[in-house]
Design goal:
Number of strands: 4
Shape: globular
Radius of gyration: 18 Å
Order of helices and strands: HHHEEHHHEEHHHH
Strand order of the largest sheet: 1-2-4-3
Strand content: 5-15%
Length: 242
């Protein structure tokens, strides 16, 4: 068993959520509004790159990048049921609500909600744009911004019946071995994209200072083994869909 095979199952939503918030906190503490602006750029870059990878896999399978296929080619899966949602309507627009969210709960657990909630303002919209610039999402409220739920209107996606929705979910499950990435991968990508944005916006020295501060805190909370795995994972090209 390789080191990655051993450590990857230990990463989940909590590590991903906390890493993001620690980066935002470090950037904001060290560089004020410029740090926050750079964190926004990093969030957009991370989401866009992820959406691009989803699109590449969709097109490679001979399918179009529709709002329906955006759902089918999703890169993450809540295998531990840390989040809970429901369908409000199937048509004319697929309307869903997230009632419990693993990211929100993780930020609250670690006293990082004020830093983490920036993620909710940008990530889903830019995932959709990265997948197909012509697709749209309306996110009307979020738990992290004191909403009762995360309220999603998936513009351009609808289902004629519950059976049709189940069929789409079954296809997503069939494709998941090649579409879904574990949370070590997602955390490594997050570190890579945020670091790139800090470098682009603030310079290499500032980026290193931000990431060092955040990663030291990450190591305190999750241990040296996860810290080392995260650093190693981040050293790859996340613009390519493998």
């Amino acid at each position: 068993m390789t080191c990655r095979e051993k450590i990857a199952p230990m990463f989940y939503i909590e590590e991903h959520a906390v890493l993001y918030a620690l980066l935002v906190r470090a950037a904001r503490t060290l560089y004020g509004q410029q740090g926050t602006a750079a964190s926004i750029s990093g969030t957009k870059l991370y989401a866009t790159q992820r959406g691009n990878r989803m699109a590449d896999r969709t097109l490679a399978d001979g399918r179009e990048c529709t709002p329906l296929n955006y759902m089918i080619y999703s890169e993450w899966q809540d295998s531990k049921s840390w989040s809970e949602g429901k369908t409000i309507s199937l048509s004319p627009v697929h309307h869903t609500q997230t009632l419990r969210c693993g990211w929100y709960d993780s930020w609250r657990k670690h006293d990082l909600l004020e830093d983490g909630k920036l993620y909710c303002e940008y990530v889903d919209a830019y995932l959709v744009k990265g997948y197909n610039p012509n697709n749209q999402l309306e996110l009307r409220e979020t738990l992290s911004h004191e909403g009762n739920c995360c309220d999603f209107y998936w513009i351009g996606r609808s289902f004629s019946s519950e059976q049709e929705l189940r069929q789409a979910m079954e296809l997503a499950a069939q494709l998941s071995p090649k579409t879904v990435k574990d949370f070590l991968y997602h955390s490594g990508h997050l570190l890579s994209a945020m670091s790139q944005a800090y470098t682009d916006c603030l310079g290499e020295e500032a980026a290193q200072t931000i990431t060092n501060q955040a990663l030291e805190e990450f190591k305190k909370r999750f241990g040296k083994e996860k810290w080392e795995a995260l650093l190693l994972e981040s050293n790859q090209d996340f613009t390519k869909a493998d």
